[in-house]
Design a protein that fits this description.
The protein is globular, with a radius of gyration of 16 Å. Strand 5, helix 3 and strand 6 form a beta-alpha-beta unit. Helix 1 runs antiparallel to helix 2. The protein has an 8-stranded mixed beta sheet with strand order 1-2-3-4-5-6-8-7, with helices on both faces. It contains 4 helices and 8 strands, in the order E-E-H-H-E-E-E-H-E-H-E-E. It is of the alpha+beta class. The two termini are 20 Å apart. This is GNAT family N-acetyltransferase. It comes from Streptomyces coffeae.
Amino acid sequence: MSRNTQDSDIELRFHGREGAADLRQLLIDVPADAYADSELAFDSRKRFAWFVDHWSGLDGFVCVVGYDEGEPVGFAYGAPLVAGREWWQGHLEPAPRGRTFGLSELLVQPRWREGGFARRLHDSLIDGRPEELAVLLVDREHPKVQGLYESWAYEKVGERQPFNDSPTYAVMVRTLQP
């Protein structure tokens, strides 16, 4: 799966699991640059590499990368989650029916923030998904980012710390329209 589209002066390139190896370095380098000032071990290049390898190996992995004149603006990726292991488990009662798409990463390089590129990448990734729900995690120390997702129809349903060395995240869910 690979397709290209032009979207308001940025080129969007879509990739599936089979093209992930070609994207690997970009998916590691862009976050490393964006988080260069972070002192958290969780934001390290090694950790980003682990996440890229994990997610890109999942069935249904999809990634959209935005380019401005050949330079990567940012990317978004995710995959369908395994039934019974969705991030919203334990936060929603009754449990919703249907499949869930996990949006693992949405990142826009600092110089392109504030230009609506995050929304374009996000929407390009989830529009037309066959799952009934989308779920993502947002560091609770970033209320502006949480507010942004709320403006995109996500709702905070709980909090979780998925790894001992990770921040605590707000678990946010959105109903997808088929």
